[in-house]
Amino acid sequence: MKKAFLSAALALAVAGSWAFYPKAAEPTGYMMVIGSATFAGFTSKAEVTVVDPTGKVTVADVDARNGSAKKVTESLAVLHQAELKQLNALKQQGWSIVQTTAQTISPPAMLTTTYVLERK
Predict the structure, then answer these.
(1) Phi, psi of 19 (to 5 degrees)
(2) 8, 21, 97 from 27: Cα distances, Å
């Protein structure tokens, strides 16, 4: 009886210790979301790039059209919507924006917006 009680108590202590067992750490550090668009001559390109804390890079192309000012403006609106969609998805995962940098280089017309995010 004494051995059964001791075994049961030991098993209970081991099972209870699992609650305090270290869990896998979530990625820490910073993440970047970069929205960029280039309009040069007859070519145009827009994309949203995500660089996670481990250095993994994910690039998503965004439909960009060159030509009239209206088409360029519409392309930039689509790019900003794609950035916002990505930022909202990351916010749901606990990331928040700590810095935003916008840059324009001309010619060729190149626009870049960089968002630095931190998990809180």
Answers:
(1) -65, -25
(2) 38, 18, 16
Q: Is the model's pTM score more than 0.90?
A: no
* Structural domain includes residue 49: yes
CA–CA distances in Å: residue 110 to residues 7, 14, 74, 101, 115: 70, 60, 15, 14, 17
Residue numbers of the chain with a pLDDT score lower than 50: none
Q: What is d(CA 73, CA 66) in angstroms, rounded to the nearest whole number?
A: 9
Q: 87 lies in a domain?
A: yes
How far apart CA 59 and CA 18 sit, in angstroms, is 39
Domain that holds residue 67: 29-119
